[in-house]
Amino acid sequence: MLPPRRKCVEWDFKDEMAGGKVEEFEGMSLIEWSPGNKIAFLKEFGCNKNRYDPYRNGERPLFPDEEAKWF
Fold it and tell me: How far is CA 8 from CA 37, 61, 67, in A?
């Protein structure tokens, strides 16, 4: 169990850039609040919504041929 002033938040994010490029990912934030209700600690984790199973077709892993996302 997390200490009382620490919260975990799950979120989804989607944006469309001026050129039309769309990015979408999901993540979690671990936030700890100070006694003055300010953020004292923040750690965030992001995950591509386009997930895959590298072992779907057998024991040898196959990975998609795409550039890794920044997150």
Answer: 16, 32, 29
Q: Which conformational region is residue 8 in: left (phi greater than 0), alpha (psi within -120 to 50 degrees), or beta?
A: beta
pLDDT at 8: 94
DSSP the chain: ---TTEEEEEEEEEEE-TTS-EEEEEEEEEEEE-TTSSEEEEEEEEEESS---TTTTSSS----SSPPP--
Measured between alpha carbons, how far is 57 from 63 in angstroms, rounded to an integer?
11
Q: Which residues of the chain have pLDDT under 50?
A: none
pLDDT for the residue numbered 37? 86
